[in-house]
């Protein structure tokens, strides 16, 4: 069975320009990796959870921000790993939040050393103009930005 994740794409309109909120994964494997490595805050769906509940929980755990307002379904995409990611978008008016203390994960580091070290799930968050966000986001997740843009364009008329 394929792994399934769910997350939220937070966005804002800054002087009429669409900006996308992205998170950069923490840990040693992503250090100094930028373009194509950012993504929406997301996490794996637990057996008892609904997709949307997972998305809200993971967003809060990773950012410290309580999602609010209308949640627009953006559907799902499949990552190159085969994992399926479901997403919803919501608008915010807030400035860039300070990076909260992210959840931590335990990893043997350096590899094959027998030593265990804790790393944050995310180590950076920021809003990016939509063109920059498309370059920074994981290529499969870029589809969520396209879907959001199409929805906003249709709403404006």
The CATH class designation is: Alpha Beta
Q: Classify the fold: give the CATH topology.
A: Nucleoside Triphosphate Pyrophosphohydrolase
Q: Please, how many domains?
A: 1
Radius of gyration: 16 Å
Describe the structure.
The chain has 157 residues and is of the alpha+beta class. The protein has one domain (4-156): Nucleoside Triphosphate Pyrophosphohydrolase, CATH 3.90.79. 22% of the residues lie in helices and 36% in strands. It contains 3 helices and 8 strands; from the N terminus they run E-E-E-H-E-E-E-E-E-H-H. The strands form 2 sheets. Strands 1, 2, 3, 4, 5 and 8 form a 6-stranded mixed beta sheet that branches. Strands 6-7 form a two-stranded antiparallel sheet. The radius of gyration is 16 Å and the shape is globular. The N and C termini lie far apart (41 Å). The mean pLDDT is 92.
How is this fold's topology laid out?
Elements: E1 4-14, E2 17-25, E3 42-44, H1 51-63, E4 72-78, E5 84-91, E6 104-108, E7 116-120, E8 122-129, H2 130-136, H3 142-156
Parallel strand pairs: 1-5
Antiparallel strand pairs: 1-2, 1-3, 2-8, 4-5, 6-7
């Amino acid at each position: 069975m394929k792994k399934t994740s769910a997350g939220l794409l937070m966005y804002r309109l800054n002087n009429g320009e669409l900006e996308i909120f992205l998170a950069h994964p923490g840990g040693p494997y992503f250090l100094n990796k930028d373009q194509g490595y950012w993504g929406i805050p997301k996490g794996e769906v637990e057996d008892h959870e609904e997709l949307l509940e997972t998305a809200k929980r993971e967003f809060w755990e990773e950012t410290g921000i309580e999602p609010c307002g209308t949640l627009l379904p953006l559907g799902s995409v499949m990552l190159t790993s085969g994992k399926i990611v479901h997403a919803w978008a919501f608008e915010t008016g807030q400035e860039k939040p300070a990076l909260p203390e992210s959840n931590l994960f335990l990893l043997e580091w350096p590899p094959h050393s027998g030593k265990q070290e804790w790393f944050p799930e995310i180590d950076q968050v920021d809003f990016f103009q939509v063109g920059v966000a498309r370059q920074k986001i994981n290529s499969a997740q870029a589809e969520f930005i396209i879907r959001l843009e199409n929805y906003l364009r249709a709403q404006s008329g």
